[in-house]
Design goal:
Length: 368
């Protein structure tokens, strides 16, 4: 047993950045180890069953995996300066922005990494896979280990047909966030929320660190770049406050509206397809049955572009968090939540289509 926590992750890793920023803000003692091939063989695969990061091992030798579950478990152990706002609109907005950041911003993150920062990404993967090796060996290792990641672009809907729309959307998002962070330190005041920790994943690991993306961010959204730097080196750990009177700044409404416009139609389609998949696979209806990472393909739109992408049930597991929050509100608070969603064009979330409930079992998505 160690005195602190152990994080297996990597600087280029989307969700490692989310967990690392949280650990630093909370001043939770931890040591980080790189996800080398040896770490996968000797630690991650025996504990989790499949090659994935981040993984956190507690001082009690428990294994935590998935950035959201890691943070939620640690919030119970380190409740000081909670990252979940206590008020209705702020909490709902924070939960929604975590879903958006975790599951939708993968699209621009992966596009920019593999279409605009390819050589840098290969070098980074080579350093992780073959630390200490010569440049030629690292390059070969980087090419090999990166194939599944670069090859995932079409499944996310990243193709030549959508590249221009992805860049237009992402640059629009940067502009909206830049206006917000010109006024506010974090999303809801001087304390980071779960929404901030969601956003730091893509905006640090892929967009700030990767050189072409980082230059773009610093050029057109310098306030976002400063926010990234503050998230990775918190100016007042375990400190700060959320805005009083449940204020959700007007500058965040365009960001939420972007989520409602771009992502929510895909979530609605995913809900319908998951219900159809369960109906057509009666042997998998039992509670605890594992759900595949993808259950086919569907069409999505982004701006003027249309393309196919995989149907990811995991997105609905994440969406259950804000939907459950809405469902459990008392009448007056539901009206407050509905008012926020109306401002952002998200009324659909108040009456979202039903779908089979999902859970996590053995570190994978399963039917509840």
């Amino acid at each position: 047993m160690t005195q602190g926590y152990t994080l297996y992750g990597a600087e280029p890793s989307y969700y490692s950045g989310k967990v690392r920023a949280y650990l630093r803000y909370k001043r939770i003692p931890f040591a980080e180890f790189l996800n080398t091939p040896d770490a996968y063989r000797s630690v991650i695969l025996p504990r989790v069953g499949w090659p994935v990061i981040p993984v956190v091992i507690t001082p009690e030798d428990e294994t935590l995996q998935d950035s959201t579950e890691i943070i939620d478990e640690l919030e119970t152990r380190f409740p000081e300066a909670p990252i979940y706002p206590a008020t209705v609109k702020q909490r709902l907005a924070a939960l929604l922005l975590e879903v958006y950041a975790d599951e939708w911003l993968k699209i621009p993150a992966m596009h920019y990494r593999w279409n605009r920062n390819y050589d840098f990404a290969i070098a980074e993967f080579g350093k992780m896979s073959a630390p200490g090796a010569d440049a030629e060996t690292q390059h070969a290792a980087g090419l090999k280990i990166s194939k599944p990641f670069a090859g995932a672009l079409p499944f996310l809907g990243v193709t030549p047909k959508t590249e221009a729309a992805i860049e237009q959307s992402y640059e629009g998002l940067l502009g909206e966030l830049d206006k917000h962070f010109a006024v506010y330190e974090f999303l809801f005041g001087t304390r980071p929320s779960i929404g901030d920790f969601g956003l730091i994943g893509p905006l640090y690991a892929h967009q700030y660190r990767d050189p072409a993306s980082g230059a773009l961010m610093k050029s057109i959204a310098p306030n976002v770049a400063r926010w990234v730097e503050g998230m990775m080196k918190p100016p007042h750990p375990k400190g700060g406050e959320f805005l009083p009177r449940d204020e959700v700044p007007e500058t965040l409404i365009p960001v939420l509206a972007r989520m409602m416009r771009e992502m929510v139609p895909v979530l609605v389609s995913t809900a319908h397809h998951l219900q159809k998949w369960v109906d057509e696979n009666p042997e998998d209806r039992r509670a605890g049955a594992e759900v595949p990472r993808a259950i086919g393909m569907h069409v999505f739109s982004l701006g003027d572009a249309k393309e196919n992408r995989a149907i990811f049930p995991f997105d609905l597991w994440m969406l259950q968090r804000p939907l459950d929050y809405i469902a459990n509100l008392e009448a007056d608070d539901r009206l407050r939540a509905a008012d926020l969603l109306r401002q952002a064009g998200g009324e659909t979330l108040m009456e979202f289509p039903s779908f089979p409930r999902l859970t996590r079992r053995n570190f994978k998505i399963a039917l509840a």
